[in-house]
Amino acid sequence: MGRGHDHEAGQHGHSHGPALTKDTPPEERRSKERAIAIAAVLTGGFMGAEVVGGLVSGSLALLADAGHMLTDFASLVLAWLAFRLARRPADWKRTYGFDRFSVLAAFVNGLALFAIAAWISIEALQRLRDPSEVLGGLMLWVAVGGLAVNILAFWVLSRAEGDNLNVRAAALHVMGDLLGSFAAIVASLIIIWTGWTPIDPILSVLVALLILRSAWSVIRESGHILLEGAPPGFDARAVAADLEDALPGVARVQHVHAWSITQERPMATLEVELTAGADADAVRRAVKARVRETTGMVHVTVEVVGSVSE
């Protein structure tokens, strides 16, 4: 009986885009962290202007966008802290370090998006029942400024996103802001041209629906990781059957488990029962190589539990 571990970093034969792992170059880590920080400063800096503009103009679309920006600012700060914490080394209490904090941050961001969408929808229904005056001109100028800020923030984040779930969640937040600013511009123009104020809450609800779609994708993916779900493309049944069919010396494969510490750090463990006379070390190496070849999984722990003749 024996155990084997493969602690190499990276992936082979299966790409999820730029991975942010312990061996990621420091400059790449810093670029993602810097992008989050820049987006946070831009979002937080303009949020106050939207609050004032929304209150003075009476626009729900602006207030909704400002509320979204407030949560975005908090979420971006949380995402930035996640990158900072991920720098801390593993210890005896946290053997994987703090990498998964970024997944938790993405999950919280997704929940925050749901809360924002619910608030926008409730407020919009109240506005439709009891319409109020909206100053279209002021609303337009504030919305244009918000759109410019959000475009800049989204451009910064999209350049650094890669396949990192935390940066992607932050980018989706900013995308929701961008859509909110665009909706406010459309609503302000309609109000200026026609005086029809219900367009303000109506477009706010449409933005809320788009926010919900983005939020669900983030929650689904981050929740899957937090629940120790198998990485994308990894089928435990297919892996076990392939190893039994393809490798001499393997009699049976069982207790196959796969999960991800973060989106970029998938891992797997499995037990192998040998055929009579098979060399345990040779089979262990062959199993790791085969799993890497078929799934791209690099960090694989293989336990040899005996042979069929025992």
Describe the protein in words:
This protein has 310 residues and is α+β, with helices and mostly antiparallel strands. It has helices at residues 26-57, 60-86, 101-129, 136-160, 165-194, 199-226, 236-246, 280-295, and strands at residues 2-5, 250-260, 266-274, 299-307. It has a four-stranded mixed sheet, with helices on one face. β2 (250-260) and β3 (266-274) form a beta hairpin. α5 runs antiparallel to α6. The chain is elongated.
Note the topology.
Layout: E1 2-5, H1 26-57, H2 60-86, H3 101-129, H4 136-160, H5 165-194, H6 199-226, H7 236-246, E2 250-260, E3 266-274, H8 280-295, E4 299-307
Parallel strand pairs: 3-4
Antiparallel strand pairs: 1-4, 2-3
Helix pairs in contact: 1-2, 1-4, 2-3, 2-5, 3-5, 3-6, 4-5, 5-6
SSE string, helix = H, strand = E?
EHHHHHHHEEHE
Q: Which structural class matches the secondary elements?
A: alpha+beta
Share in β-strands: 5-15%
Question: Which stretches are poorly predicted, pLDDT < 50 over at least 5 residues?
Answer: 1-23
Overall geometry: elongated
**End-to-end CA span:** 12 Å
Query: How would a crystallographer describe the biggest sheet?
Result: 4 strands, mixed
Helix content: 55-70%
The number of helical segments is 8
Q: What's the count of strands?
A: 4
Strand order of the largest sheet: 1-4-3-2
Radius of gyration: 25 Å
Q: Name the average pLDDT.
A: 80
